[in-house]
């Protein structure tokens, strides 16, 4: 089911939208829908608090680390074995 969204803007803002849509070869409606989809994709999926909680839970562990070149070489040798 589709929903209609009404957005009120002044004439100058709407003229800018029309120009942008025309440059992209789109209708204003299509241009706005695409812009909203892109803006929605850029929004974080999880809250900052959730992300910090995950990082804090991982940072309590003491995993072995090493030189990246050495780790990659060892991985490659494992593939070849």
UniProtKB/TrEMBL annotation:
Protein name per the record: Antitoxin
Species of the source? Nakamurella aerolata
Q: What is the lineage of its organism?
A: Bacteria, Bacillati, Actinomycetota, Actinomycetes, Nakamurellales
């Amino acid at each position: 089911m589709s929903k209609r969204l009404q957005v009120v803007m002044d004439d100058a803002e709407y003229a800018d939208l029309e120009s942008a849509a025309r440059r992209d070869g789109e209708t204003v409606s299509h241009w706005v829908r695409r812009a909203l989809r892109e803006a929605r994709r850029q929004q974080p999926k999880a809250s900052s608090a959730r992300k910090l909680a995950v990082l804090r839970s991982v940072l309590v562990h003491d995993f072995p680390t090493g030189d990246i070149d050495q780790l990659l070489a060892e991985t490659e040798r494992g593939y070849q074995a």
